[in-house]
């Protein structure tokens, strides 16, 4: 059975989205981090998105065609394009990427069936959708890319009111100050 992975860049104080501004770290130009993420998620077959995260990630549908796109951007774009995408939204009428479908309501049992029937891992991206998957006991692995910024508020990486017992599997610091922490559900 495939694993469901939750991964986000996260502030030092635990926010996946800052209340004001960004998380204070520019991932877009960091080749070391891009290469690491491409390798880490190379076998992902399906991305599960909420509407806002999909709107952010759909950039990768055409990123490989940008005239100045460096090889690491082209590589990740092609990986993203090759995967299936499911977007949960009550307002989105159509998608602007291939291999993408819209779902109107989050159904934990449907995600369980998707995991059980998949030969490749899945990711859930965005703190709101991930909170639903975490509460349903669907998330197997957590990948936090921890910045050195404290933002003081926003949307938390982990949902409030949840207790999770996790095992640290791996950690990796990057030259730019980012720290990758990989946890697995016990």
Automatic annotation (TrEMBL):
Lineage: superkingdom: Bacteria
Signal peptide feature range: none
GO BP field: riboflavin biosynthetic process
Ranges for domain Bacterial bifunctional deaminase-reductase C-terminal: 3-177
Record GO terms (molecular function): 5-amino-6-(5-phosphoribosylamino)uracil reductase activity
One Pfam family recorded for the sequence: RibD_C
InterPro entries: DHFR-like_dom_sf (IPR024072), RibDG_C (IPR002734), Riboflavin_Biosynth_HTPR (IPR050765)
Protein name: Dihydrofolate reductase family protein
Lineage: Bacteria, Bacillati, Actinomycetota, Actinomycetes, Geodermatophilales
